[in-house]
Known about the structure:
Blueprint: H1 10-18, H2 23-30, H3 34-48, H4 67-75, H5 110-132, H6 149-162, H7 166-178
Helix pairs in contact: 2-3, 4-5
Amino acid sequence: MPTKAKQLDLAQVQQRLAAGESQDAIARSLGVAQSTLSAHLAKARRAAQPPPHPGGLPEGDLGPPQPDQAETAALAGHTPPVPPSGGPENTQGRPLPQVDPGGPLTALSAQDLQDLQALLTWWRDRQRLLQDAAAPERQLERQTYHIEKRFIEAVRREADLTGESYAAIVNRAFAQYFAGRST
């Protein structure tokens, strides 16, 4: 006849873990196997986690899109997350300190203004790419071509330098090659 499973006081176990006691020592003192204790703790952690988002992406603020994340999200048909209203927050939900911009833009050097202009141009191009990426003719499709190794290395180097995906670099190269030609 099977024995009834021993009930564990997980709140007490969590307190003992927080105090620095090992799972093995706690399991011995409770008279259960360490694997049983681990299984109970894992089950409690899973129960405390929110259910996965139906679309496969977690809900909530994921922060600003990273260069390759934004493109990947756009190509997959997802929109990048929008920062929450009420000011920026860090990952723990606490407000981030406000940063003083340091005065009027006229205090910036000519090089700083050129750099900001280049950054703004890059950002606008990136936003345009995200908007255009959902168009049917812009959807990615896997295709294999045999190319010289030097071009494979060139694509990798460019991806490392620009932070773009391989697909974006190859598409840009094809677009440049076929520009003005009828396809």
